[in-house]
Amino acid sequence: KAGVTQTPRYLIKTRGQQVTLSCSPISGHRSVSWYQQTPGQGLQFLFEYFSETQRNKGNFPGRFSGRQFSNSRSEMNVSTLELGDSALYLCASRSGGRIAEAFFGQGTRLTVV
Amino acid sequence: TQLLEQSPQFLSIQEGENLTVYCNSSSVFSSLQWYRQEPGEGPVLLVTVVTGGEVKKLKRLTFQFGDARKDSSLHITAAQPGDTGLYLCAGENDYKLSFGAGTTVTVRA
Lengths: 113, 109
What we know:
Chain A has strands spanning 5-7, 10-13, 19-24, 31-38, 42-50, 53-57, 64-68, 74-78, 87-94, 103-104, 108-112. With 113 residues, chain A is mainly β.
């Protein structure tokens, strides 16, 4: 069974640009969550999608958005990039139930210069 | 501010010693999960505990969920260099995981 696939693994962008990250969950999993990990703040929840609907959202500015497709693949977009957006962005795949184990991808390392 | 407080922040021990990592919160969680993360990689799930007072053992690792479902501990017996990594606890509510800051464990050979 394939794991969670995140693309790309590494990305370098310039301030002001926008970026789109992709996540393919484990086959059969319908829930995808996104997290930002930085040395100073640790792992912070961005949002969670289930069957193309956002069920929960963290405390991030509107520049951070996401969506989920009918095949459960998800994308997150960050517009008008700031230096502080440099982080490891992690995607977690879950079956979708209220108490379901989360399986993480390897992450996308975003560097904003 | 982290919803979950982990302690200690760093732990360096000799191979063969035991260690315990603590995870405390003032919030009640529907479940609590423990992960281990290697540098540059995503967290890998170790265990999920759901019931207050629950104890789970996985080989040399013992996980406990507090009776009130607010705190948890991870105990490693006879630690090995392969146990080195960042250990994270995460509490779940409403499809959202809230993570502790993590405990960096180093096991010296």
